[in-house]
Amino acid sequence: MTTIKYLPALALFATFSSYSSSSLSEHPTWLKLGHYKNASAPQSYIESDSFFISKNGKNNPSSELKATIDAFNKDAQMQCKYPARYQWLQSQGLEFSEPKVECTELIEWRDKQPIHSVSLVFASGYMSNPASLYGHMLLKLNRSTPEHNKLLDYSLNYGALVPDNENGLVYITKGLFGGYEAGFSDQLFYRHQHNYGEIELRDIWEYKLNFSQEDVLFLTNHLWEIMGAKYSYYFADENCAFHIARVVELIIGEQLTNELSPWVIPATIFSRLNSAQYNNEKLVKQIEFTPSRSSVFHQYENNLSAKDSKLALAIYHSQNILFEPTFTNLDVVTKKRIIETLFEFVQLQQIKKYDVEHIEKLKKALIKARLVLPPGKETSFINYDKHAPHSAQKPSNISISSTVYKNEQSLNLGFRLSYFDSLASDIARVPYSNLEMLDVEVALFDSQLYLEKLHLLDLESFNPAYSQWPNEGGWAWQINVGYERNRSQCFSCSSTFAMAGVGKSWLLNANQSLVYGMINGYAGELQSTQQWLDTSIELGFLTTVTSNLKLRTSIEKFYHQQLSGIATNIELSVPINQDFDIRFGYKHATEFQWQLKLNFYWD
Amino acid sequence: MLKTTVTAVVLAGAFIAAPLQAKEGVNPWQDCGIGAMIFPENGTAAAISNIIWDLGTTAVSSNISSVGSCEGAGAKTALFIQQTFPVLEQEIAEGEGEYVTAMLNVRGCDASSHGQIVNAIRSDFATKPAQDPQALYAIVESKVTTQFAATCPVI
After folding, report:
1. Which CATH number is A117-290's, of 3.90.1720, 3.30.2220, 3.40.50, 1.10.510?
2. Is the pTM of this model over 0.95?
3. pLDDT tens, A70-102?
4. Which of residues 5-44 of B touch A (CB under 8 A)?
5. What ipTM is given for this predicted complex?
6. How far apart are CA A152 and CA A158, in angstroms?
7. What are the boundaries of the signal sequence (chain B) (predicted)?
8. C-alpha–C-alpha distance, residues A503 and A489, integer Å
């Protein structure tokens, strides 16, 4: 950054000291302050004209710098609109003719309860809501003290501005291909913790960053500047994870984002965040976990003895027991534990709107019974058996495999955009689920290249009940759209299809195994059946054999595919480390097919 | 849905940036629009229209918002109660919790008095539990403006 082409113009407006020979307008920090893409393509991600002082500022960092310096020399109040620019230019040795002023509104927001640190927050994805598959990311400005808890911290959220009652198709189209404005908003953190943890039942991880007070001040000042600025929203790449990471990169440099990447997934940012260094130290100082209401309930429930659990269930069905000797004669600690567990369960039922009238009555009864006991909770947990998102398997995948079909052998190459399959490690994933997008495989057979598989979307959620309590678990379901060659039917058999299935699943073996049954419907060019529609019954079994070694088997009987009998699938996953695993696959319908595959996961 | 979200966020913005001042005689439910706000109770219900919700479609344009007469700690407490009522009910019954602590923080009550205030609210609950957020707000206000006025100054 040693070009001096802008220097003569700059010198008109300010007095330089230490940086008289450098071009500040190409400085990475200046480019980040203007949210410019990079020095070679100096176009800002920010669309609002009002964010820029110069008319050309959106596409011209140099012009914006000159205008900024000019503004600071002529109007002291501009310091209050652009406190980070002012702070940074001063740190670069610039002096301005206007004196420093006190910015009342900024100070009220920033310093009334001082912001002492910054965290990035990850709300885990969950399969019950397609909107939440990939998780969410937001920025938290920590102001908590021993007297004020973290629920009143500031949190910065990035998102699109979508008109009310937007048509679903328009919504998806604009979300994917552009058409929505986006921006940052601030809310007190309780809104997010409550929404994610209590309503959507998603675990939350908070990564506290190793920033100095000066860094925190600079970042906070910059957030003040960009509040209200409008961006263009793109779901795949210019989303919350990208723009929040770009804000953090104002301090740490470009360690989190890659402008060339066509997609940005929140978990990827956290993986990079955990590896990032700042001032020769790890960027992440501390990781905190906040369990969802659902995680809390399962922990509480496991903590009850079998006898107390049975009594709690009896109370669930008949709340009058709370006021009968069976319960009232218990010691205070046991009574508290049972009520606390029931409270957690009742909250879950309220969220799911199960048996509303019964639950309302039960909650009132629980409150009444609890109020006669001394204040203070009896059950609390610190250690949950949950892993932070950075330790999860990386979302994208390339693979190489050898496939044997009869006596033929092929070399297959694969690519998957995201995110995980049912045989992946459960770390930071929803267990017993599958979320794959754009999964492609090609095969080289006798010097001919064949498309073996193109799955646009492959979703599965087995949604089992993790306890014997009422209304736990739900329907198992799956959706798959794409193209697939069915060599186990015949060499040239293939299908272009959309399918959906629904069924139930049950956990076995201390939740280490699951059996399921589904009824599936297929539509499309189903060559092996010569039909456009088909249905099937599928039965399957998933199990964790040892550690992360997982096995999945299934059989599927189609209605129209009478000749091919039952289709059998077996796949075994042997993890090597976070980045690699080996898969053994076997398929059989009328013919058999073996596959040995090496997967490399990356982000 | 976005409109209600925006309303919620705009009101939440008042927590942050609006100058704190007492507003006597304000009923937050009637005067600040809290009663008309609809809060998401089940994320699944909004699954189709909110397909991209989670990579950020809930932001609004500005943080600096104040809502007329709803700038006082009372209105902010009312909003907090409206948004978190089911959890507050539970925590008050149990006598402690991070949401009830945050509620009293919002109301401006000194941390040293939180335990006593929660106990006082529990006593009222024992005879007549709050049936809805507005009823809980009334109980909280009656306590902090009389019995605990010294530790919960009007701000």
Report:
1. 3.90.1720
2. no
3. 999 999 999 999 999 999 999 999 999 999 999
4. 8-9, 12-13, 15-17, 19, 40-44
5. 0.84
6. 19
7. 1-22
8. 25
